[in-house]
Amino acid sequence: MFEQGLLKGKRILVTGGGSGLGAAMADRFLELGADLVICGRRLEVLEATAAAMRASRGGNVTAIRCDLRDGANVEAMMDTIWGAAPLDVLVNNAAATFIAQSEHLSFGAADAILAPTLHGTLYCTLAAGRCWIESGRRGVVLSILSTSTITGRAFTVPSAMAKSAVLAMTKSLAVEWGPKGIRTVAIAPGAFPTPGATDQLRPTGRDQGWALRNPLGRVGEHRELADLASFLISDSAAYINGEMVVQDGGAHLRSSGAEDLLEWTDAQWQQQRAARSKR
Questions:
Q1: What is the model's pTM?
Q2: Beta strands in 68-212 (DSSP E)
Q3: CB-neighbour burial class of residue 60 (10 A; exposed 0-12, middle 13-18, buried 19+)
Q4: I need a labelling partner for 215 at 20 to 30 A (CA). Which of 26, 37, 89, 252 fits?
């Protein structure tokens, strides 16, 4: 469907690019000709992913350790990236979430979700935007959100809040930065299972039944998300700005996907809190 060199000449930063959907998108970008920078907190994971991509695809992949919760750390990462070569695209993928009864959330637990998902995304976006504006270059910001921005989502309130705030950022900057040649777009994926997300959102004893609840009768494939992301950051999507594309098989039209948790007993919630505290 895509030209082999669709992203040739573009340098792309993917946050949380060492595993899961971030790695899937990064690999597709590399396949389509891009130069990559992937960042995250675990350097050993990033370097292993980068080495695997180089071995299978060839091309240029750089791994940088960065704690997105720290604005100074983000600024230092951007200095390093731009010191080597200009950046063309930022993909805000890094995020955190887990299920919890909201009345039992401590401030620290809420901040553990808000810090990377909201603050880290904002820090990266502002840092990239400043570099593009100061250098007079065009740029694209793609943020990976969720359908909670449409439906809300019980038992993951900090995540739903953070993703909704990033959608507001996407729409706001589309107007403010559009005249400067910077596009901001977003994707709201549905169920694209990954080990990390599955551990947090499908704890033992909970049958999500994602495929059964989906109008299309299945979950998403990582390649499908990677292809959509590749299109949105490419020059082929140059007239799409400020929009969020939903990619969930129509699942959000039925429910937010968290209603079954209303049936959990206190004992099940206590078991979940105990399991989370051991991680």
A1: 0.90
A2: 89-92, 139-144, 182-189
A3: middle
A4: 26
Work out the average pLDDT over 251-256.
82
Residue scoring higher pLDDT (67 or 208): 67
Mean pLDDT of 226-240: 97
Long-range pairs, 157-162, Cβ under 8 A, ≥24: 157/102, 157/105, 158/97, 158/105, 158/109, 158/110, 158/113, 158/114, 158/117, 159/95, 159/96, 159/97, 159/113, 159/117, 161/114, 161/118, 162/95, 162/113, 162/114, 162/117, 162/118, 162/121
Q: Is the pLDDT of residue 256 over 90?
A: no
Q: Quick one: angle between helices 43-57 and 20-31, nearest 10?
A: 30
Q: Is the pLDDT of residue 197 over 70?
A: no
Residue 169 tokens read as: 């950022």
Instruction: Give the CATH superfamily of 11-277.
Output: NAD(P)-binding Rossmann-like Domain (3.40.50.720)
As a whole number of angstroms, the distance between CA 86 and CA 67 comes to 21
Please state the length of the chain: 279
